[in-house]
Amino acid sequence: MLSKKRALKQFIERHIKEGFLQRDDIIQATLMEFRGEFGGPDFHKAVAATVDRHLARYLIMESAWVASTDCDKIERAFRDLEKMGVVTRQHFACCNDCGHREMQSELRRLRKGASVRGFAFFHHQDTQRAIKQGTLFLTFDAIEKNVEKAVEIGGIVLDTIRKTGLKAEWSGSYLQRIAVSVNWRKRRFSAAGVDRAS
Questions:
Q1: How many CB atoms lie within 10 A of CB 78?
Q2: Any alpha helices (H) in the chain, and if so which ranges?
Q3: pLDDT tens string for the chain (198 positions)?
Q4: Domain ranges across the chain
C-alpha cells in the first residue's frame, strides 16, 4: 500500500503528465483529493511547492522535444477532423458512457450553426491507459444513427490519424474503438514540434 505522501506525489505527477489541468487546477484537485489525509495551515503551501517542483522538472524534460510528439499528432489530427465536420474532444468525461452523454449535449449546442457529421473523443480513463500502456482508444460515431454512417466516420478518423504518421488499428466495426499506439508526451510549455522532411 502506498504511503500518503507517495500517493500525493503520484497524483500530482499523473495530472502533470496528462497535460490537461493547469497549475492552479492541479493544486485545487490535490487539495480536494487529500483534504482528509493531511491537515494544518501549511498544507496548501506544501502542495503548491510540490506542484511547482514537478512542473519545473517537466519543463526541462519537455525542452528536449524538438520533433512532433505523438500528442502533437493527435492534436493535428483532431484539428483536421474538425474541419471535416467531426467534433473532437480530448480527455473528455470520466468514462465512455459519460462521454457519450456529454457529447450529445455538445452536439445539440454545436449543430445550431455548424455542419456536423459525427464525433470522436477519448476520456480520462483512456488518457491514463495511454500513459501506462501506450495505447490510446478513440470513441467515434455519426450524427445519423445507422451502421453505415458510423463506419464511415470510423474510417475518416482512422485515415486522419494515420496521415499524421501514427500507427492506428481498427476492426472496421462500429462497435469497436480505434486503437492508436502512442508514446504519451503532452506539451505544457512549448509549441508543437516540427518533423524533419523525409
A1: 22
A2: 4-18, 23-33, 43-62, 70-83, 96-110, 124-133, 147-163
A3: 568 889 999 999 999 999 999 999 999 999 999 988 787 779 999 999 999 999 999 999 999 998 999 999 999 999 999 999 999 999 999 999 999 999 999 888 887 656 899 999 999 999 999 999 999 999 999 998 899 999 999 999 999 999 999 999 999 999 999 999 999 999 999 887 666 443
A4: 4-62, 70-181
Computed from CA positions of residues 89, 90, 91, 96, in that sequence, does the dihedral angle turn out positive or negative?
A: positive
The strand pairing partners of 87, in sequence order, are 119
Grid coordinates given for 150: 458510423
β-pairing verdict for 135-142 and 86-89: unpaired
Residue 144 neighbours by CB distance under 10 Å: 12
121: phi then psi, degrees, rounded to nearest 5: -160, 165
Distance from chain centroid for Cα 82: 16
**pTM for the model:** 0.91
Taking residue 136's Cβ as centre, other Cβ atoms within 10 Å add up to 25
Cβ atoms of residues 4 and 37 within 8 Å = yes
The 3-state secondary structure of 135-192, one letter per residue: EEEEEEEECCCCHHHHHHHHHHHHHHHHHCCCCEECCCCCCCCEEEECCCCCCCCCCC
